[in-house]
Amino acid sequence: MAEExxxxxxxxxxxxxxxxxxxxxxxxxxxRDGKMQDxxxxxxxxxxxxxxxxxxxxxxxxxxxxxxxxxxRAKVEAFNFTEVAMTRANLREGVIWVRPDTDxxxxxxxxxxxxxxxxxxxxxxxxxxxxxxGEQELNKHILVVGGGVTGMTAALEASAAGYPVTIVEKSGAxxxxxxxxxxSIPSRAPYAEPQDTGIEGMIELVNNNDRxxxxxxxxxxxxxGAPGRxxxxxxxxxxxxxxxxxxxxxxxxxxxxxxxxxxxxxHYKDSPDVxxxxxxEALAKAGGPIKRPSDGKEVKAVAFVQNVGQTSKDSGKxxxxxxxxxxxxxxxxxxxxxxxxxxxxxxILFNNLRTPGAxxxxxxxxxxxxxxxxxxGDVSEVVPGGExxxxxxxxxxxxxxxxKADLVVLDVGMMPNSGPDPYAQLAFEEAEEGSEEKExxxxxxxxxxxxxxxxxxxxxxxxPHLRHGFNDSHFICFPYETRRTxxxxxxxxxxxxxxxxxxDDAAGAAMKAIQAAENAxxxxxxHPRAGDLSYPSFRKEGCTQCKRCTVECPFGAINExxxxxxxxxxxxxxxxxTCMGACPVRVISFENYSIDTVGQQLKNxxxxxxxxxxxxxxVLACENDAYPALDxxxxxxxxxxxxxxxxxxxxxxSVSLSWITDSLNSGYDGIVLMGCQxxxxxxxxxVRGSAMAHERMSKVGDTLQSLNLExxxxxxxxxxxxxxxxxxKLINDMAETVEKIGMSPFKF
Amino acid sequence: MSDLNTAMAAxxxxxxxxxxxxxxxEGETVKMCMQCGVCAGSCPLGKHWAHPPQEIFMMxxxxxxxxxxxxxxxxxxxxxxxxxxxCPRGVQITHVMHGLAYYAKRLGxxxxxxxxxxxxxxFWDNLMKGGRVNELKLGLSIYFKxxxxxxxxNAMANQKLGMNMMKAGxxxxxxxxxxxxxxxxxxxxxxxxxxQEIEDAKFDGAAx
Amino acid sequence: MAKKEYSxxxxxxxxxxxxxxxxLTSTQSMCDVLDITLNEIPDWNCCGAxxxxxGGGELPRLTLSARNIALSEQHNAGQEIVATCAACWxxxxxxxxxxxxNKTLFDGAQQALAEGGLSLKNQTAVRHMVEVLIEDxxxxxxxxxxxxxxxxxxxxxxxxxxxxxxxxxxxxSYENPLYLDKMIESVGADSVPTYxxxxxxxxxxLAMSEPEKSQEMIKGIIEAAYDHGADxxxxxxxxxxxxxxxxxxxxxxxxxxxxxMPVVYYSQLISIAYGKSxxxxxxxxxxxxxxxxxxxxxx
Lengths: 748, 208, 299
What we know:
The structure holds 3 protein chains of 3 kinds.
Chain A: E1 7-12, H1 17-20, H2 23-32, E2 38-42, H3 48-59, E3 64-69, E4 85-90, H4 92-96, H5 103-125, E5 142-145, H6 149-160, E6 165-168, H7 199-207, E7 212-215, E8 218-224, E9 230-236, E10 241-246, E11 248-251, E12 255-257, E13 274-276, H8 277-285, E14 301-308, H9 325-340, E15 345-350, H10 357-369, E16 373-383, E17 388-394, E18 399-405, E19 407-412, E20 414-416, H11 422-430, H12 436-447, E21 465-467, E22 470-471, E23 487-489, H13 499-521, E24 537-538, H14 548-552, E25 558-560, E26 566-568, H15 578-582, E27 588-589, H16 595-603, E28 617-622, H17 626-635, E29 644-649, H18 657-665, E30 670-675, H19 689-697, H20 700-706, E31 714-718, H21 726-741
Parallel strand pairs in A: 1-2, 1-3, 3-4, 5-6, 5-11, 6-7, 11-23, 13-19, 14-15, 14-19, 15-16, 28-29, 28-30, 30-31
Antiparallel strand pairs in A: 8-9, 9-10, 12-20, 16-17, 17-18, 21-22, 24-27, 25-26
Chain B: H1 2-11, H2 16-23, H3 38-42, H4 53-61, H5 65-69, H6 82-86, H7 93-107, H8 115-130, H9 135-143, H10 148-157, H11 159-167, H12 174-177, H13 185-207
Chain C: E1 4-9, H1 21-34, E2 36-40, H2 58-75, E3 81-83, H3 86-101, H4 103-115, E4 126-128, H5 129-137, H6 139-144, E5 154-157, H7 179-186, E6 190-191, H8 206-209, H9 211-227, E7 232-235, H10 238-246, H11 248-255, E8 263-265, H12 266-273, H13 291-298
């Protein structure tokens, strides 16, 4: 039985709104055009009295409310009414702050405000209050894949927060790579000496922790479900399997060292006295003075060759730098001084010495004080022999030279222990049988590492790669947040890092995992729309099983049933609406965000006729970057053209082509779409949304052509949150364009 | 002095940096150089250094003992201290350059006729006579440092300058005869002699 | 103004008939008005300056300063040492600080001083005269004594190296110290705070050994002052003053310039502004006459 709906509007006259605008007329507009059953005014709606007024109306039966005041990004604590469907008309940042306070502008400013009232009312009429689906209950159990430093730290952090944890470790012991180290880079002031790794203590803490279960010699045979209800099959080497359910997952599968065998100039393969930095740890850990592998001689001169096989575009080398390699060399050079005496020479041959952070700088200074030699040099060859010779070009003195050493240590980089690229799997699946592309992909997949998660997702078995095989979705903006909701990457599988950074990472990922599990339990989105209760649904009768939604979902949230219909996994969904924008038959919607909630807004804008000299420009602005930039423009007093009508969208990827067609058909003179930066250095919160919108909009040309409209009436831009001056300018530019090419003839 | 040179070279054969640490003024700060090159870029006479300070420090590490000590680079230092205040590693560059220059002089390996070395020595010898600098005698000794003929030429060339200075009361022919000295020159001489002995002992000790 | 007393280290170049004797004369005029008493350190010796290093090694050089500090501590006990010469100030303060941080050197100096019956406490502050003016008198204090503001004069404040580095004046930057500009403003003249050569090296003692290299730099210092429309250059350093002033003929001959830029001491500016005569302010000590200052003094 449908509940009875009651629509009530609220108009704030504070912050200058009452002085700049005719509130009486706004009220009339809300009632007459916006069909609000009741409209209230308040001189400061966000104060306790104003909020109470709204609450009283809700208590009195209001089910849909329209608040005309400041931007939807302002006063969110005051206007937090989860029990009703709510819309906001942005009269402050969106109208009075972007228009000059002069008599000649009064009319157009009022028209702007009236339109925003109409839009907000229309949006309210077409939305329903989001409610939790009840799809799942809270599952607090966190699964950690990998039992190294990162995995153990994540487990300890989550358990300290009260969450049970299961660690799945492939090898027979906890500790990972770091268990083989002699010491670690210092994590505490004064950052002058290598310090104990603390691994034994950490293993003991994990083993003695009642909340942590450890599965050694185990892998994941299958992982399915969604945050809050992940179902994993843990397979032991012995063949035994365990089924368990988890709320969220942390993948901390770490790294493996790069193998320098192919770089023959270092003679790593032929000389036992040329070792990698990771192997050198074992020589130091053996106890006593460091002895060289070939003849057991105590070393008196050690050369550290930095950046081996890294930061190179050459095939077979790593295109990136491991970040920690130089700090590791400093640490290991200190081993030489500490274990073999101050007269043991340790020379670090570097080009660009990277010692990130204040701690790294202090550690570097400490090494210099210990008389460790740093030579800026480019090593060309290591000549093996009883005494090794390291040939290098001294880059300061600009000359070819050489040094003698008993032992040569190669700084090799970290390679992520990630699973196969799921998008390579998808591409393989979609490539034409027998095609060259299919063959190439087949070969690539054959040498790909085995799956780690074995996800039963439509979009592949493992976490997507961001770059060079690392699992992440954005190294800076959204660390740990992979493109598979509820599964978080931490440590060197996410990007190269040292132990201290991995531990920070682990704590961060554990917190994210907890958030995902908790929010899933409440039917809320995780991030970035944390707390969002809306979720997508589709009308099966209209669906053409085209699979665009399932393939284009950036987060692998949608599976397919046997007939090819989408199967939504609410808790995997980030609520970006990319599926909605993708659907050609418009059957996908959220309770409070749909084809109609936006479509009706743009249709309810008052459309003056062709000869009015009052064009209308529709702006669809991403709520994460472009819309805040426009708000900020208002706060900075930057003018926006009075013909613009701005509608925030969740992501440009959610923009339906129908909105564009409808607005062109109903007489809009220009359309500006503002999304985030796309491409390799994307800043889109939903990864591919902006890129897909750009692709889709490239097809708008046909529509324009069929309507005999100029192509420059529709522009798609990448806008950053910092584009406070540029974003208004793009709108104002469109106004100029319209002035040049004339009004649209499609006004009704 | 070449005995000392031989002894030092023999003792520190493989490690010039350690030698510099042991005997050169503020030499223990050299190891902190991180090769950023700010010193080289800050030196007002930078373009005249065959090896800018950054390079000198690298050469010290690379054990290029002769090339450093026989270089006239550090004699280009004007003592402007620009490098010192800009060095992010606290390397006492000005003092190290002075120290290297003095060490080279001690070892007797300074390039023949290096003018700053000569002036420096003349200045020191001048002040050591009476405890204070006799500017007139210093000036004349500088003119005549390359021999009598050059001296007359220099003096003639600078005649106008000298006349101007005398007219301004900032140069006095009286200095040639008497000049300023300290009263307790005997005590002064004893003090500096002792200091010199201690200084010499430092080098002798380091060479052993 | 309350009477202030300091233990004064004038330095070799300030002596009668020496290159900066005009600095001393004008300093005395200035201090007379400011009621500052300068008690000369009895029997002080040369500091070794910035060029002595090549003759004497570290300890003999530092011992020169040790003797001066010891004499000051013995005869002018309780008074801070004040130097007017940049090199004197720097060498003395450097020695004091080196002794504080290096016991071997301190012990060596002490041992040497004992030979002359002296002993070093090394507890005396070593200051430059401009520190006294800025910190003890203050810009307002300098201003309050002005009788003849130097109105209409534009003066490029040339700080040079050793009054600025490595110690410098507290609160000032190494790259663009403003104290000299503020002093110039305090006596009513216009300063050139953006004078880009204000901390450029003049060559120092290398003006003697490497005249061409030094004069190339001096040329830049004078040129920039002309570019800013300055009437004269003012400086706190005797070697800067001499180098920038006395080689102008040589530079003109070599580069075809027509430099005729007076270079004066801040103490001369203050002395004139305080109503002292041209002679008391030692304007007769100029190689390049500071005519505009003379005119003002004679008004």
